[in-house]
Model the fold of this input.
Amino acid sequence: GAGVSQSPRYKVAKRGQDVALRCDPISGHVSLFWYQQALGQGPEFLTYFQNEAQLDKSGLPSDRFFAERPEGSVSTLKIQRTQQEDSAVYLCASSRRADPYEQYFGPGTRLTVT
Amino acid sequence: AQKVTQAQTEISVVEKEDVTLDCVYETRDTTYYLFWYKQPPSGELVFLIRRNSFDEQNEISGRYSWNFQKSTSSFNFTITASQVVDSAVYFCALRPMEYGNKLVFGAGTILRVKS
Done:
């Protein structure tokens, strides 16, 4: 499709497990963002890539969170040793330029840690 | 501090009523962008509008209109003649130029339009 896709759409993990969430941005989009959205809240910024370079990771809540975009297209957000407070929807967005253009969001991955 | 406040947690209206969603922002930057996004039950955020801090002209797009007032740091969104399909969560977001490329979102307003 033409939009941002994310997989899996739903993930249930037991506390302590590692998870990997995938984002396929719109083809040719330079910028890629990850956001975390807790229930009933607005999305909160996690990290930002311009091509393969991770330019801002100030929003990652702990060193258990790691993101990569090795070839400047697909990105993976990895969470190690998941905790219950990690339960949220993880949204990926892409933008075709580096400047303040509109970000196109994917459907999100709903992570539930039990 | 960069902050967006959407004071209305939830609004319910009857179809064909007009409804205004409020957004107040805080930033020390003189250059910034403001956005509105819609999040339907499917979960995907849908971009509605982007305005920059130098353009205070109000904008109308079909049934949607936006009122940007720098003096009160507000960027309100009005839906005219609401429809059931407008039911969603609406988010206002701020992107200060000095804050990198990240968006700062408000907590959202749930809009329920009843037939």
About this structure: The interface with chain A takes residues 4, 33, 35, 37, 42-47, 50, 52, 91, 93, 95, 97, 100-108 of chain B (CB under 8 Å). Residues 38 and 46 of chain B are 5 Å apart (CA to CA). The radius of gyration of chain B is 14 Å. Chain B has a mean pLDDT of 92.
